[in-house]
Write a structure and sequence with these properties.
Elements lengths: L2 H25 L2 H9 L1 H30 L6 H29 L22 H7 L5 H6 L3 H15 L4 H27 L1 H16 L1 H32 L5 H18 L6 H10 L4 H14 L2 H17 L6 H15 L8 H4 L2 H7 L6 H6 L2 H25 L8 H8 L1
Helix pairs in contact: 1-2, 1-9, 2-9, 3-7, 3-8, 3-9, 4-10, 4-13, 4-14, 4-15, 4-19, 10-14, 10-19, 11-12, 11-19, 12-13, 12-19, 13-19, 13-20, 14-15, 14-19, 15-17
Length: 417
């Protein structure tokens, strides 16, 4: 099953589940209500399957992403500008996603969320305890408990240390991590074969209990994500590109049409990379600069996903009536930032990788199943936004870099071109 077929199948499962749940809710038929609520364990099993691969997938993707960044000092001015652009805009995107969703949440009617597992709403730790919990005393234990935030901290430190080893030792470690990632990605694809049934079960059970209110909540969520992406693009990307890149918005937008269209239709940043190189040539960017920036952007720039995840955190927290204290919210932003840098190239990976932030805040993971069903629409918009960010970073880096730095990644980009 292809990515498009998988997401379409999940959409069909969501629509059928919502329709069945609405009929059961409207008619209050004992048989329909019993079926709708009786199949809920099928949806729970689907969520558990996703959770099963979260820990190893996050660990391997974060590790390889950090190791391949290497020592940022070796990249000089170009590396500093590129990473600064990607990381600063990612943090801004998370805040925008959270802010826009928070402004829209008062319009969402009360509803019944998917059932949470016992104990998932445990009391959150204080600021000092939270900071101490980021340093795991036993990595195996935190992985077994699904405490992904301290696991990510360990993985980042371990990868940073690995990046200082000789190339042969690095290759052995990254080769093992790559093989594990590829295996886990294959497993995710297998799990997604069950997604239509799992999403149907979750949607039918929830809608049967809550009726139209769940549909209204999902519509507000999708609309909020799209609104946040538009605010981010016109309020952050275009001003940066105009004032730092010294290029007119009209010229930049024309160059974005091809890559954004491919990204929108395929929901894949990598698929748009050849078109990005063509756009860079059209804008007359230095090949050494664009080759490095665009390739790195396809690997780590996930501003659209970060904005989506920030909005999802606020939405699910509201759905489950979870209060967000400043310390825990800061931890969620930190977790979202780290994970968004290495979102795996699998369908709905932005939702799967939400687990660290949700776990930090004590938000039940059961809500992820509902988001999976409506993910196709925001996924198209956030991927298109990310691709324009790759090109925008190349424009800014080309303008601000005094001496272009040759990059071996350009050879790869030329072949794809």
């Amino acid at each position: 099953m292809s990515i498009v077929q998988s997401t379409l199948a999940m959409g069909v499962g969501l629509i059928l589940g919502l329709a069945f749940g609405l009929v059961a809710s409207a008619t209050q038929s004992a048989g329909l209500m019993a079926f709708a609520t009786g199949i809920e364990p099928v949806g729970t099993a689907f969520v558990n399957l996703i959770r099963m691969v979260v820990v190893p997938l996050v660990a391997t993707t974060v590790f390889t992403g950090v190791v391949r960044l290497g020592d940022p000092r070796r990249l000089g001015r170009l590396g500093a500008i590129t990473l600064g652009f990607f990381w600063s805009t990612t943090l801004v995107a998370i805040v925008i996603g959270m802010t826009v969703m928070r402004l829209l949440l008062p319009f969402a009617p009360p509803t019944v969320p998917p059932a949470a597992e016992p104990g998932t709403l445990a009391k959150l730790p204080g600021t000092v305890d939270f900071l101490l919990s980021l340093i795991p005393t036993n990595v195996i234990d935190v992985a077994a408990r699904g405490a992904l935030l301290p696991l990510i901290v360990f993985t980042v430190l371990f990868a940073a240390a690995a990046s200082t080893l000789n190339s042969e030792a690095q290759a052995r470690l990254t080769g093992l991590a790559d093989a594990a990632t590829q295996t886990l990605v294959k497993l995710v694809y297998w799990i997604l074969w069950t997604a239509p049934v799992g999403v149907f079960a979750l949607a039918a059970a929830v809608t049967a209990k809550s009726g139209w209110s769940m549909l209204q909540n999902l519509a507000i969520f999708v609309g909020g994500v799209i609104a946040g992406l538009l605010v981010f693009f016109f309020g952050v990307y275009l001003p940066l590109i105009t004032y730092l890149g010294k290029i007119t918005p009209a010229r930049f937008l024309r160059a974005c049409v091809g890559p954004a269209t491919i990204a929108f239709s395929t929901t894949s940043s990598a698929a748009a990379l050849p078109a990005l190189f063509e756009s860079a040539d059209e804008l007359r960017l230095s090949p050494s600069v664009s080759g490095f920036v665009l390739s790195l952007g396809a690997a780590i720039n996930r501003t659209g996903s970060a904005l989506f995840q920030g909005a999802a955190i606020m939405f699910l927290a509201s759905l489950y009536h979870v209060t967000l204290p400043p310390a825990a919210l800061g931890g969620a932003i930190f977790a979202t930032f780290l994970v968004s840098q290495t979102v795996a190239s699998v369908p709905s990976a932005s939702i799967v990788s939400l687990a660290p932030a949700l776990g930090t805040l004590g938000i039940p993971l059961a809500g992820l199943g509902i988001l999976l069903g409506v993910d196709r629409i925001p996924d198209m918009f956030r991927t298109a936004t990310q691709v324009t960010g790759h090109l925008g970073a190349a424009v800014v880096a080309d303008r601000l870099t005094l001496t272009p730095v040759p990059s071996p990644l350009q050879e790869r980009g030329t072949k794809e071109h």
